[in-house]
Amino acid sequence: MISYAIITKGDRPDKLKALIDSIRTQPHECEITIAVETGAGCLGLLRNQVCRSAKYPILAVCDDDLILDSDFIPGLLGFTEPWGVMCPKVLNPDGSRYWDWREVTENGQRMLEYHIPDAGNMIPPGCCVLLKREVFEHVKWDETIPFYTAPFEDIDFGIRLHEAGYKCTMNPFMTVHHNDERYYQTGNTVGKR
Q1: In whole angstroms, what is the distance from residue 75 CA to residue 56 CA?
Q2: Cα–Cα distance between 68 and 154 in angstroms, integer?
Q3: How far is the C-alpha of 47 from the C-alpha of 34, rounded, in Å?
Q4: How far apart are CA 97 and CA 180, in angstroms?
Q5: Angle at 188 between CA 186 and CA 192, to 5 degrees
Q6: What confidence tens digit (pLDDT) does each residue in 99-121 have?
Q7: Are the CB atoms for 156 and 165 separated by under 8 Å?
Q8: What is the average per-residue pLDDT within 120-130?
Q9: Cα–Cα distance between 64 and 165 in angstroms, integer?
Q10: At what angle do helices 153-163 and 43-52 cross, to 10 degrees?
Q11: Beta strand 2-8 pairing with 30-36
């Protein structure tokens, strides 16, 4: 049912194992595919590689420092709205929000309340986004943008999704935990220690 497309640098085996263990506890049929960064530093390239090799109609594109909550699959299966790009709730270890439901404007990015619909400027979280396969077939990540370099691969991907006519859908009933103690919410943005 779901292909988990995971990207990793391979230097955090404990975090990768925690993610895989959390996937295996979910009540569903799935496959797990992993792309390992080997020095090119382009997340878009890795995301496209791992998605191309996936076989199921739903792609859960994940970074290696996540843990799926027990509500992940029940929240997906119980969601009745039509969607092509789904954003789960992403929480930091302290329970605050990570960049889960955010908009990008000329003044930068900010998180919005979950009930606010995508007005054409929502950017899916780079750490975890669910895509229907047909969306991935139409819009792929840019394979030339280096890690942590503007325009940033996740923001670029979100902009091109909207240009192709897709909108993001927030699903606050499925939760992912960002397994990195350095991050915390500050107002409607995210800080890093």
Answers
A1: 18
A2: 20
A3: 9
A4: 12
A5: 40
A6: 999 998 888 899 999 999 999 99
A7: no
A8: 95
A9: 29
A10: 60
A11: parallel
Q: How far apart are CA 24 and CA 79, in angstroms?
A: 21
In whole angstroms, what is the distance from residue 43 CA to residue 67 CA? 20
Tokens of 114: 């979950």
Stretch 4-24: mean pLDDT: 96
Encoded tokens for 101: 């439901």
Give the CATH fold of the 2-192 domain.
Spore Coat Polysaccharide Biosynthesis Protein SpsA; Chain A (3.90.550)
Query: Any idea which residue has 């691969």 for tokens?
Result: 153
Tokens coding 106: 């000329």
Beta-sheet strands, E only, within the chain: 2-8, 30-36, 58-63, 66-68, 85-91, 102-105, 108-111, 122-123, 128-132, 168-178, 183-186, 189-192
DSSP code of residue 169? E
- What one-letter code names the amino acid at 61? V
